[in-house]
Amino acid sequence: MTRKSSGGSLGVYLGDINEERAKELRLTEARGALVGTVEESSPAAKAGLQVNDVILTFNNQPIFNPTQLFRLLSESAPGTSVTLGISRGGASLSKAVTLGQRRSAQREERLKLYAEAEAHLAAAEEAARAKEEAKARGNEKDVAKFAEEEKVFRRMAEDSRAAIDKDLQEGKINLPAPAQQSGYSILAARYQLGVRVTPLTGQLATFFNVKNGVLVNEVRVGGAAEQAGIKAGDCITAVNGEPVDSLADLNRLVDVTSRVNQDQKAQSVGEATLNVMRERTELSIKVKFTQR
After folding, report:
1. Which of 65, 90, 255, 277 has the most CB atoms at less than 10 Å from its CB?
2. Among 8-17, 160-169, 205-214, 280-289, where is mean pLDDT lowest?
3. What confidence tens digit (pLDDT) does each residue in 235-277 have?
4. Is residue 4 part of a domain?
5. Average pLDDT in the 199-217 region?
6. In this structure, are 284 and 196 located in the same domain?
7. Do 93 and 162 share a domain, yes or no?
């Protein structure tokens, strides 16, 4: 989950900590903000933060979850120097970070162009996790299979990114003015889900073991999806039993949910059940949509 703000920026994607993850990361308690990805040349990268670091303090203030850290970042100006308390493999570290500028609207639009590349990269990371699990089981056949899948998806991510870079350089893609930007792909009717998604290619659908769906690339801080527990890398395959094949389907089904709740005279929220595939396991997640 990406954490950006109107204030300072670390340039990291953060996740939540549950009891199981806390044990894996050798934490004494289930709290903090888990570093999932560190953007290249970001303040976090320059400070030496790494994937699977857990941010436990911000200027000596305890961090209990990513949302709290996001709030503190939003209250800090770019250029501010802060000290982060980090747990890395159970060892305590202290990192001084100079916060960067938040994403500009044009940069936000640029990131949307790379959604397909990010989807392939997410698949590569999933394959890498599956490969390590196969190693732990001693299943060499699966190790070889997932290693090849990881290689293929990383190459697809690189090819997709290179194609976008080329089109931008040649002027084949024009970035809209900032006023035309919308922050997230799903802003449906009176209710907001708060995710950015990309359609699944045939290869991605096969890899994630789904026949249809959209891949969640980003989850908005404080949105309905985050509150329900939806995470980047999830595949949304259905809403209230209706299959989702595209962004348009997801938008339409969320819109239908808002109208149904309005007809039923719901005062403040709409509800829907989303079918989600996470790490090849199907989940049913109930979401309460926030009103616009």
Report:
1. 277
2. 160-169
3. 899 999 999 887 777 877 876 765 555 444 444 457 889 999 8
4. no
5. 81
6. yes
7. no
**Cα-based distances in Å from 183 to 18, 152, 179:** 28, 31, 11
Q: Could you write out the DSSP letters of every residue in the chain?
A: -B---SS-B--EEEE---HHHHHHTT-SSS-SEEEEEE-TTSHHHHHT--TT-EEEEETTEE--SHHHHHHHHHTS-TT-EEEEEEEETTEEEEEEEE-BPPPPHHHHHHHHHTHHHHHHHHHHHHHHHHHHHHHHHT-HHHHHHHHHHHHHHHHHHHHHHHHHHHHHHTTSS-PPPGGG--S-S--BTTEE--EEEEEPPHHHHHHTT-SS-EEEEEE-TTSHHHHHT--TT-EEEEETTEE--SHHHHHHHHHHHHHHHHHTT-SS-EEEEEEEEETTEEEEEEEEEEE-
Bridge partners of 61, per DSSP, are 58
Structural domain range at position 120: 105-180
Q: Residue 185 domain-assigned?
A: no
104-113, 182-191, 245-254: lowest mean pLDDT where? 182-191
Cβ neighbours around 100 below 10 Å, total: 19
d(C-alpha 215, C-alpha 186), whole Å: 12
Here the tokens at position 30 are 């289930």
Same domain, 171 and 202: no
Residue 57 lies in a domain: yes
Q: Are residues 34 and 54 in the same domain?
A: yes
Q: What percent of the chain has pLDDT over 90?
A: 21
